[in-house]
């Protein structure tokens, strides 16, 4: 999990992502973030930092949350995670 200030790393899960068609919840050592669908602008593949394009970035408009929130699947891959989120109706780009 990344919040724009620091990132978790290693083989111990640093966060858990739960999602359904109405809400996303990312809970980890860097914070606890709950998003309703209207709070998310888009979900996309992560950039260079911190996981060399293997994470997921959540772009949102919730002022109380860090601007940059990211997540990297411990098991599986980013494309599969993005496909599952898109199948739930989330704005994946």
Tag the structure with descriptive keywords:
93 residues; mainly beta; PH-domain like; three-stranded antiparallel β-sheet
Description:
By secondary structure, the protein is mainly beta. It has a single domain, classed as PH-domain like. The protein has one helix and six strands; from the N terminus they run E-E-E-E-E-E-H. The strands form two sheets. A three-stranded antiparallel β-sheet has the order 1-2-3, with no helix packed on it. The chain is globular and about 25 Å long. The two termini are 20 Å apart. 20% of the residues are buried. The model has no long low-confidence stretch (mean pLDDT 83).
Contiguous low-pLDDT stretches (5 residues minimum) are none
- Rg over alpha carbons: 12 Å
Characterize the largest beta sheet: strand count, sense, and whether it forms a barrel. 3 strands, antiparallel
Distance from first to last alpha carbon: 20 Å
Task: Report the strand count.
Answer: 6
**What average pLDDT do the residues reach?**
83
What's the order of the H and E elements? EEEEEEH
Assign the structural class, choosing from mainly alpha, mainly beta, alpha/beta, alpha+beta, or little secondary structure.
Answer: mainly beta
Question: What proportion of the residues form beta strands (DSSP E)?
Answer: 25-35%
The CATH class name reads Mainly Beta
Tell me the domain tally: 1
SS field, number of helical segments: 1
> Which percent range fits the helix content?
10-25%
Shape label: globular
Strand order of the largest sheet: 1-2-3
Q: Do you know the CATH topology? A: PH-domain like
Any idea what the CATH architecture is?
A: Roll
